[in-house]
Amino acid sequence: MGRLHRVTLGIGLVVVALAACDGGSTAGDPDAGARLEDQRTEVRATALDVAPALAAAVGGRVTFMSGEWQGCNIVEQYLHRNFRYSVSGRIDAAGLDEASVEVLSAALEQQGFRTSAVEPVGSGRIGFGGERDGLEGGGTLYVENPFVLFGFSGPCIDVPKGERETWERRRDPDKDLVPKRTTSGG
Question: What's the predicted TM-score (pTM) here?
């Protein structure tokens, strides 16, 4: 093999290696947009079904629930290669204690989630969670406060490189799942 052929082959290998350093496929999933929209529908439906069951299990109520698109893996400064839809919220309940997290985990399991072990996640916080049909769900009980923060999300989906900036800026125009309470004066 001549020197020119080795140089050409070497340059070709460098180009392939640099393309691989992009953090994954530059093509992404051509159906990513449709799949992410379907995921949004599924995650929102799951949250609307499961969050009230969690609240009922501890004698509380869902006081906040909102959804948004989230980037997963960064490939360039401030630019993700894949995204998912997530819903987060809060349950307010009086009388929460360490035993309440087991009740929450059992309620999640009753909703069809394959639950994982309940674990401390920091001082005064205990986490619970699980997976159902590719969706993750769970939350954190704040032992010394009368609330639980919870969330549900779908798996990360690679988007084509040319669509990444659009997904970074994308906002859900109907993100609130629980109407905000209003205070009336007077």
Answer: 0.80
